[in-house]
Amino acid sequence: MKTIRRAAAPIIGVLAGAAAAGVFLSGNATATESDSTEERFAISEVIDRHQMYIDLRDADSYANLYAKDGHYRSPFGSADGRSEIKAMFIDLAEKGFTKGKRHMTGPAMIEVNGTTATARSWYWVAETETEHALYATGTYTDKLRKVNGKWEIVQRTQTLDELAPSSQ
Question: For this UniProt entry, which residues form the secretion signal (predicted)?
């Protein structure tokens, strides 16, 4: 009888652990955590695409990351609405402002609240044509909303780090 109890004890322990894990990990808690992770990943994708579209010189895709009534604020210019944002993008590209640069985004802190979210991320811009050098660093502060299953930037505010080179 002792042999059976000893053999059964680990099995019962595993089953009890699995049952407890099921209680704690099932239902709304897991769904909420999973949904939140999926939403944060989707928002990260928007933030990453923002930088990629600059370097790919894809004005349409860049502008479509923004809500129709989106806003962009930066030391380099501001725009309201998707069409103005696209026009600003094209203007800066035609003036050579983004030529020979690689735009990157670093870590992001993302807070999701239903169909709205805020994000704060660091960025840096590298010079890639005349020399390999750091051109600019700063912060993006974003407000986003989810419309028809898609996250859009409602407002992006770009700031430069205080010690940024004066050539910017």
Answer: 1-31
